[in-house]
Amino acid sequence: MGKWVYGFGGGASEGTAKMKNLLGGKGANLAEMSNLGLPVPPGFTITTEVCTHYYANGENYPKELKAEVEAALAAIEKTVGAKFCDATNPLLVSVRSGARASMPGMMDTVLNLGLNDETVAGLAKLSGNPRFAYDSYRRFIAMYGDVVLGVEHHTFEDILGEAKDGKGVSLDTELDAEDLKKVVKAFRAKVQEVTGKPFPQDPKEQLWGAIGAVFQSWMNQRAIVYRRLHDIPASWGTAVNVQAMVFGNMGDDCATGVAFTRDPSTGDRRFYGEFLVNAQGEDVVAGIRTPQQLTIAGKQANLSTLPAMEEAMPEVFRQLDTVRGQLEKHYRDMQDIEFTVQRGKLFMLQTRSGKRTAKAALKIAVDMVSEGLIDRKEAVGRINPGSLDQLLHPTLDPKAKKTVLARGLPASPGAASGKVVFSADEAEARAAKGERVLLTRIETSPEDIHGMHAAEGILTTRGGMTSHAAVVARGMGRPCVSGAGELRVDYAKKQLLVRGTTVKEGDILTIDGGTGEVFVGEVPTIQPELSGDFATLMEWADGLRRLKIRTNADTPTDARTARQFGAEGIGLCRTEHMFFESDRIVAVREMIMATTTEGRRAALAKILPMQREDFSEIFRIMRGLPVTVRLLDPPLHEFLPHTEAEIEEVAKASGASAETLRQRAIELKETNPMLGHRGCRLGISYPEIYEMQARAIFEAVAAVSKESGETVLPEVMIPLIATKKELDILKTMIDRVAGQVAKESGTKVPYLTGTMIELPRAALRAQEIAESAEFFSFGTNDLTQTAFGLSRDDSGSFLKTYQDKGIFETDPFVSIDIEGVGELMEIAAERGRKSRPDIKLGICGEHGGDPASIRFCDKIGLDYVSCSPYRVPIARLAAAQAAIAESAKQAA
Amino acid sequence: MGKWVYGFGGGASEGTAKMKNLLGGKGANLAEMSNLGLPVPPGFTITTEVCTHYYANGENYPKELKAEVEAALAAIEKTVGAKFCDATNPLLVSVRSGARASMPGMMDTVLNLGLNDETVAGLAKLSGNPRFAYDSYRRFIAMYGDVVLGVEHHTFEDILGEAKDGKGVSLDTELDAEDLKKVVKAFRAKVQEVTGKPFPQDPKEQLWGAIGAVFQSWMNQRAIVYRRLHDIPASWGTAVNVQAMVFGNMGDDCATGVAFTRDPSTGDRRFYGEFLVNAQGEDVVAGIRTPQQLTIAGKQANLSTLPAMEEAMPEVFRQLDTVRGQLEKHYRDMQDIEFTVQRGKLFMLQTRSGKRTAKAALKIAVDMVSEGLIDRKEAVGRINPGSLDQLLHPTLDPKAKKTVLARGLPASPGAASGKVVFSADEAEARAAKGERVLLTRIETSPEDIHGMHAAEGILTTRGGMTSHAAVVARGMGRPCVSGAGELRVDYAKKQLLVRGTTVKEGDILTIDGGTGEVFVGEVPTIQPELSGDFATLMEWADGLRRLKIRTNADTPTDARTARQFGAEGIGLCRTEHMFFESDRIVAVREMIMATTTEGRRAALAKILPMQREDFSEIFRIMRGLPVTVRLLDPPLHEFLPHTEAEIEEVAKASGASAETLRQRAIELKETNPMLGHRGCRLGISYPEIYEMQARAIFEAVAAVSKESGETVLPEVMIPLIATKKELDILKTMIDRVAGQVAKESGTKVPYLTGTMIELPRAALRAQEIAESAEFFSFGTNDLTQTAFGLSRDDSGSFLKTYQDKGIFETDPFVSIDIEGVGELMEIAAERGRKSRPDIKLGICGEHGGDPASIRFCDKIGLDYVSCSPYRVPIARLAAAQAAIAESAKQAA
Q1: Can you tell me the distance from the alpha carbon of B511 to that of B406, in angstroms, rounded to the nearest whole number?
Q2: Proportion of chain B in helix, strand, coil states, percent, rounded to 5
Q3: Which one is predicted more confidently, A149 or B576?
Q4: Span A196-218, mean pLDDT?
Q5: How confident is the model at residue B649 (pLDDT cuts 50, 70, 90)?
Q6: Cβ of B759 and A794 within 8 Å?
Q7: pLDDT-derived band at A635, boundaries 50, 70, 90
Q8: How far apart are CA B130 and CA B250, in angstroms?
Q9: Angle, CA of B140, B142 and B146, to the nearest 5°
Q10: Is A695 helix (H, G, I), strand (E, B) or coil?
Q11: Residue B453 catalytic?
Q12: Mean pLDDT of chain A
């Protein structure tokens, strides 16, 4: 037998802010404010345990509940000095849900409860405002009828509409007290008609009806879906808050308002909010009247002509401003508050942590540290790492007018406008002429890289968050919207169709890669500005984290960007992107099309000096930092020539006939290229390819070491290892080449050799693989693909269904599936350490930039995460938060 | 300090047959025969431990070795009555390797050791045959020169060739003693020239040289590769056998021969072998003279005109026949023996278990049980399960002449001849006219099924042992050669090219699916005959095994075949094959092309009655046995129409335009279909498909139960489950449909619902999946694909390289990769049982018919394996052997 009801108000409470699990968020904060001595209308909270009990016992309440509610109600009556059911001075209450986690709009609320034919008259007399009283009554009947009695909302709307039609007016406010009396009568008649019973006149009966309805609403369909999507257990239950009503609409000495204790968009330490005189909370939201600013400064900033509260109600404003200070000091965070002024008296109805922009979050966190409210650890913990994306890329001007054309996936953040082009070549050609273009493709492939570089942004109609377009765009820092399936691209006609609208090549579109929206025409954007607060907070974060942050960078540009963002090395330098550069693709194709080792060697000899120069440049930029170079990974056919002109070009270079080349291209085609002849399998079949790459790496090491006098430490990474033998064969070759280069150059050539762990088998066999591998880098993209048997490129067609049905809570290509893929990683880490306790462990999949995944990587003790350049700051922050969480766990 | 040398011969030995690990196979059996009192030339074995010591100690022998060898040599001298290095009565010895496992031809042998310029004269005198003596000497110099001194073999061949040219003859035997003396002289000069030293004349020096060479040969490249391929640890080492030479070529009272104690091709209990009078062992092998039969019966059977040994040497024959009986009784197995008769005296040189055909193996095993030599368990253990394949399919007549055209993979056993056709339609059309055809494709797809049915055999130029063609062919029992990459198919010209040869449609080819060979023209075949021995042995096997054997069968024909072969249920009934039947493919396509639920439902309604009839028929055949039905698995695009005519047909049936259909086909195309929108993902996206299938199953259950009065128990299997939620959503639907059908039909509809475990994630999450799944069936094909990240269809291009380089010891699609895929299975079985201790566990991947994999399935406690109909007998036998091995392990 527990305590089921907790009272609050009148300067004291039975609960506190810490009791959110028991009282829900709203109830706990009302109790806390009451404890602080703030003016909170008295009330009580029926705990979440009642909800749990209710569902565990065939929808029956604990037997003690009735008595506890009645006692709590009596306490309210005493504090307010009004009485429930009293015809002359009636107590009215609100009944609201309030779960542990915020579930906005998911559950039901009843206001003005306690009104009936008698008390409404008393309220009219007491307020001197019969219209107010009857308006409250009709609202109550409609709300209660809908929520508790199951009379559909529109039924009441229809009656109200008829009343207005009958009087020839269009606004509710044009109905007077007499009109509303008639509406009330009609409402009651309707309730009788639909339910077969009169509208309950007994306020106690009303109260129990409303309490029951709130508990019932915990299991309504909307709430169930919401919980499933937000991973909220049904067992948490909701609390019910019953609170004395206060009214901001009883006259000109009344008001209602909402405020933030600091500016939620800039973070400035100024009181920010709006209020309406003689109004109810819903009027502020409805936007029927123009709200007034709280402060004179706010009035000036908004060019408002209406008086600020600071002027109009200076006394109450001072009270409110004091409350603001008390709340910030107490909660040590910016608060989002609701208040009502009833006849010159201030009442606080809600306080909670306020939502804010990323910029504001940074400023508030940094300011609060200097104000001594929080420490650095707490400041770092307050920032949502993902929100930093807003700060690193151009964003759409929030004031600009926009027309949405379509929606896709927010594949790479930032906003961009440009002329639509449908091929990489066209993108490059127009960009060379100084035009800004938006590369628009059904999907992209490695041969579109030059066009993606040239474009301002990328738009695809197929592919998910980890499609080629998305991954490459994020790496380059180009905004990208992927999988905008409503768009139908017609390459032949050079146009795209969206539900009847045609967009032609050269027409301008704008994309917002942060939301996935596509807009008609050009939408102005705002350039990012990395403020001092950003730098300060990142410095604090760096001091707190254990994980190193590296970057995935294939080009000098990427490498430079990443260093600017604070990368501590390259965790993944893909060598295949280099193969697509226009100066070498012909030689690469010649190599692929060769059917003999000699043919391949001849072509590779042409590629070697170029590849060596690629590495040299990157080693120069990353000097002093580790660089992990992955040997060739994708299936060879990705490099194949497609057009007749390309085939001719390769034929000329290689001396083979075009027909032979076409035949070879057919031979190289694969049913499931992701599971085909790629990764280290290429190195096993054609050792000369990896040999050339190893030589290019080591020659670059030797050259850069000589020129700079510093040691360069490459980590040679072999992809797609499934067995130790593959690694052993290739490592022997790499060691041999390193020895040769050291001898030829007369320089020491230090290096590590390691593997990707991206196949389930490799994770399981990690112990023996680690006998040869000096490091593991988790390739979680492929590990996710193989663990789930799920192709990134093809999952788009059903991923949404899977998320809608709650099968995937998040896209497993975005955030590591901890239960499955995560277990494979843990197994690999544990087994790898068994044979090599100091093995270096990292992650280079797309997940390396995802905060939840970074938290997991920290937990299983990886040494570093590697992510695309633009996610480096996010990863630095997420790593710091992971370390904070981990140390808090250890302390607990 | 151990004992390093074990003597044998003279009627007693220091070793026994059980000491194979120490003495090697040859040494142990020589010792054993000696112990049995059989006439074995005396000798000694230097143990494998000496080899291990040699390599562990910088190639040095144990210090006691020299003394032990000399003592053993003295013992030989005493037994033989001849002396090493004695010019008048010289002892000659052979020096042979002999490892624990047979490694034929991998290591070196030296014969006639002990000859030098003096002893050769003594041998000439003693034998009265100078030619024999000098022939032996020149052979010795060449063999020793090659093996011990590193003078290349061809050097000696060249000198011998010159000698023959000089004399104008062409055969070695045409050289007389004088000629050979000159050859010997030239040989010795050559050795001096190449090595800078004279050929060693001291027999002791010769002996140590030969012993060293044998130990060295353990680490030669051939031996290393052989060990790697056969998984023989280098640490085992080889033994060295030194044995007194005996000569079958000293005159007409001498002979040499090889024999099997029973007929190795039929298993008949008759002495079977050949011998040559006045000859050496190598002459029998060389085939210069026609060998004579051992027995008169053999002489008659072979229509030989030469006298049998039984006639020519009746006394020695009787001795040999007695030895035969002794050996069989002692070894309780058919033996393969070598013997030499020197001047009327029999010597046994080798005995070992004899290789035999599958048919012979069965007969010998069954006969030996009735003879009381072995028990049933041992009989069952003696048969190689894989060899049964020879008995179940037509085979090529071994006597037929054959011209190999190309080689591919032995994808489905059996031999077949037919006219080459290049399309399934052509195959069907010609078969309908009574022609026998061989369907030849680059690769096959589900829409070729009708052509595969119509064909005698299937030949593809791409794809591995588990490509579509291979899997389907095995299921149908059609011979198949897959991945014959040398063949180049030209569909347009209706021909195939092989290195210049053109094969046109209608030309006849023959394939041997057991070897992967493709032959020109028609090669006669022999039909299988399942003898009484087969039935007897299978019955014994059934009594011993724990695992149930089910079959993978999609059609009534398959189901009937499998029952005849002893299947105890269907472990995998794929429903997609049914979709390709010509009477429903249009409706199936209509369903796929539909873009709305209604459109799909309309098409599905047409398919329902046909699918119900499919199931009814199979349930009737399998009455009383469980049938696992897998809901639709492959990606929808596999069913798409391809030709314009097909598209038109679907357009007509569905009312959609051809253009819309083409567009839809493009939408359905996937980059990696194996990892795409398939399996339960279809059931989640389009619940109406699985709903129709569930209804068809349950309606069939109801109908067949009613008509037969027996209960039918289907197991509804959901493919490609990665998460419990997928299963829960689909199980709820299945339960609902079952309830509806039960109500509608007024019949009980019992069933189980379970999943494939074919994704690594499913294996890891088995505990929670088993909360809902009543059975697991391991889909090891896909589990192998995902664990390795390896596509069955695409692995052909590098699988051979992987096997050659020792990365894969066996094709992981043929035999379960126990270390990786196997661990996933163990994890899943263990975790599944945690939440459902009695969960039914089976395997339905191709591995279900592989003996090594069956052994593993038995070990981890699966309830059944399921394999293609023609592998059911193999699986029954393998399961029995697994049970025997397991119980032996438990006993130990």
Answers
A1: 10
A2: 50, 15, 35
A3: A149
A4: 94
A5: confident
A6: no
A7: confident
A8: 10
A9: 115
A10: helix
A11: no
A12: 91
Mean pLDDT of B305-326: 95
Pick from A584, A607, A569: nearest CA to A752: A569
Nearest partner of B448 among B606, B642, B603, judged by Cα: B642
CA angle (B591 as vertex; B589, B596 as ends), nearest 5: 135
Taking the CB of residue A78, how many other CB atoms lie within 10 A of it?
A: 12
Identify the pLDDT of residue A229: 64
* Residue B257, pLDDT above cutoff 70: yes
pLDDT of residue B38: 95
And the tokens for B717? 């299997």
Mean pLDDT of B153-169: 90
Q: Which amino acid is at A796?
A: G
The DSSP-derived string for B137-177 is HHHHHHHHHHHTT---HHHHHHHHHHHHHHHT--SGGG--H
Give the contacts of A200 (CB within 8 A, at least 6 positions apart): A206, A209
Q: Between A676, A765, A790, which is nearest B794 by CB?
A: A676
Output phi, psi for A584, to 5 deg.
Answer: -135, -5
Residue A787 contacts B, CB cutoff 8 Å:
yes
Amino acid at A465: M
pTM assigned to the model: 0.82
pLDDT at B1 over 60: no
pLDDT for B531 beyond 70: no
Report the residue count for chain B: 892
Which among A675, A758, A794 has the least Cβ separation from residue B670? A794
Q: Which of B254, B480, B680, B844 is catalytic?
A: B844
Question: Cα B574 from chain centroid?
Answer: 28
For residue A286, what pLDDT is reported?
56
Bridge partners of residue B336, in order along the sequence:
B260, B352
pLDDT exceeds 90 at position B846: no
Strand order in the sheet with B335-342: B292-293, B272-277, B255-260, B335-342, B345-353
Mean pLDDT of chain B, nearest integer: 91
**What is the C-alpha to C-alpha distance for residues B156 and B590, in angstroms, rounded to an integer?**
77
Which pLDDT does position B437 carry in this prediction?
95
Residues of chain A in contact with residue B726, where contact means CB-CB under 8 angstroms, are 807
Measured CA to CA in angstroms, residue A501 lies from A402, A509, B194, B757, B778 at distances of 16, 13, 89, 47, 50
CA distances from A525 to A357, A404, A410, A414 (A): 17, 16, 17, 9
Q: Token pair for residue A570?
A: 């390259």
Say how far apart CA A203 and CA A206 lie, in whole Å.
Answer: 5
Chain B residues in contact with A823 by the CB 8 A cut-off are 764
Tokens matching residue B57: 């100690």
Q: How many beta carbons lie within 10 A of that of residue A579, not counting itself?
A: 24
pLDDT at A287 over 60: no
What one-character-per-residue DSSP string does B355-372 give?
A: P--HHHHHHHHHHHHHTT
- Band (A481; pLDDT cuts 50, 70, 90): very high
More confident residue, B711 or B349: B349
DSSP output for A195-252: HSSPPP--HHHHHHHHHHHHHHHTTSHHHHHHHHHHT--GGG-EEEEEEE---S-SST
Residues of B (790-829) whose Cβ lies below 8 Å from A? 790-791, 793-795, 797-798, 801-802, 805-808, 817, 819-821, 823-824
Estimate to the nearest angstrom the gap between the alpha carbon of B500 and the chain centroid. 32
- Distance in angstroms (rounded) separating the CA atoms of residues A135 and A115: 11
Strand B548-552 and strand B570-574: pairing? Answer: parallel
Q: How far apart are CA A98 and CA A500, in angstroms?
A: 46
User: Inter-axis angle of helices B130-147 and B153-167, to 10 degrees?
Assistant: 150
The structure tokens listed for B552 are: 């993978």
Check A798 against B685: CB less than 8 A apart: yes
Tokens 């022998």 -> residue: B61
pLDDT confidence tier of residue A282, bands split at 50, 70 and 90: low
ipTM for the predicted complex: 0.82
Placement of tokens 């032995």 in the chain: B410
Question: What average pLDDT score do residues B263-284 get?
Answer: 85
